[in-house]
Amino acid sequence: MILWKKKSTEVISSGELSTLCGYNSAQIRKDLAYFGEMGVRGVGYYVSELKHEIEHIMGLKNIWNVALIGVGNLGHALISYNGFRKSGFHVRLAYDRDENKLTGLPPEIQPVTCMEQLGEALKKQKIQIGIIAVPPDSAQNVANLLTSNGIQGILNFTPMRIKVPENVKVKYVDFTIELETLAFYLSKK
Length: 189
Fold this sequence. Notes:
This protein is of the alpha/beta class. 41% of the residues lie in helices and 19% in strands. It has nine helices and nine strands. It has a six-stranded parallel sheet. The longest helix has 13 residues, at 175-187. It is globular. The relative contact order is 0.10.
């Protein structure tokens, strides 16, 4: 959507969206129609309205309070990434049992080093999403603690498949699988 604003595009057709996204224009129209009337037949979609509707549908107009559990190299990289904040994801709490890893955090992030204090801190900071970036053998214990404190969204950077209640959504980020996928595509050339 930022690309369109730079070009000062006010209206975009499903054909143009198809070119940008790599999906069939009929499928784009069908998918967008699922959420209601957004475009004008024969004209296209007003970019500002479409952007607003998509942000609303995806919950990107909300501010999401996030807890990062595990502040090693990956954790620090995640904290440093400005894209989260721009999309409404605010890291409010960082846990690591090694207090040295919690030095130099931005002031808006509450550091926690004691597992017994983590549950209270999650509630105090009104955390909605937990990011797990701990060693794999700790992932299930962390998931248990997060879910027992009302967290219903988890981004898991460990290769471990965690068990959570049905009402909790887990997304897995496994860099090995992503690299293997790239290797597969590259080997087919």
